[in-house]
Amino acid sequence: MKNKNHLQKMKENKEKIAMMTAYDYPSAKLCQQSEVDMILVGDSLGMVVLGYDSTIQVTVEDMIHHGKAVKRGADDTFIVVDMPFMSYHLSIENSLMNAKRLYQETGGQALKLEGGSQEVITLVEKLTNAGIPVVGHLGLTPQSVNVLGGYKVQGKDKEKAQKLFDQALQLEKSGAMALVLECVPKELAEMVTNVLSIPTIGIGAGNMCDGQVLVYHDVLYYGVNRLPKFVKKYGDVNGATTTAIQAYVSEVKTGSFPTAEHSFTMDPQALPDKKL
Ligand code: KIV
Ligand code: NA
What we know:
Elements: H1 4-12, E1 17-21, H2 25-33, E2 38-41, H3 45-48, H4 60-73, E3 78-82, H5 92-106, E4 110-112, H6 118-130, E5 134-139, H7 145-148, H8 158-173, E6 178-182, H9 186-195, E7 200-203, E8 211-214, H10 216-220, H11 237-254
Parallel strand pairs: 1-2, 1-8, 2-3, 3-4, 4-5, 5-6, 6-7, 7-8
Helix pairs in contact: 2-4, 4-5, 8-9
The structure holds 3-methyl-2-oxobutanoic acid and sodium ion.
Subunit structure: Homodecamer; pentamer of dimers.
Binding site for 3-methyl-2-oxobutanoate: 43-44, 82, 112
Family: Belongs to the PanB family.
């Protein structure tokens, strides 16, 4: 399994890091088989797996439930687990308790926290000191969608760009092992990538980041019906699945499934006597 040092080395060697989300046993297994460098158990599971319209409803229990399944499917891959909405904002004690549970019960290798406020910076330092590696996340931070006013690119004006840049440096200083940059202009993502010594992982942040992350269901076009601008569709699971299910339904209705090939047989002598 890659560890924090391998990922750091990849940045130094200019070897790109491929990260993808996974939420359950089969998705994790397929990511590992496909040699993804890091798996993110993203709280995006609220939207793509649970059908909520944002990540705000996702709970610590949800993350643990899915994180454990991912771990069973990809025991040999570096797994990052998202801390969900408000699980790291109530108090230091509550945040540390939630972090402990998410880290210990899932068996993941790191936790990811959104934002760069002083509270988050302090927590990143405490968690790192306690032995829990932390990945930061700046730019579009979906847990704050209603404060940001929608899912849109972040850091386009001087003031916002400066703030993001300063927070990135602070996150690195406080011990973050990597930084996700979501929906950030590529010029700004490149500058942050060049200044930081930890790897940056972009999503909608151009091709100069040290790695990329995308959502499993978006990459595969699986259960989604529109894709953000920054996603490239690499498959069509919607199409393949619908075709397969329709064929099954149709063969059940016509009686052409199952045939002898999919049936068990026995000696008719051994059938029970009909006692009517
Ligand atoms: O939850 C998620 O999928 C994420 C990625 C978009 C970075 O946080
Ligand atoms: Na997330």
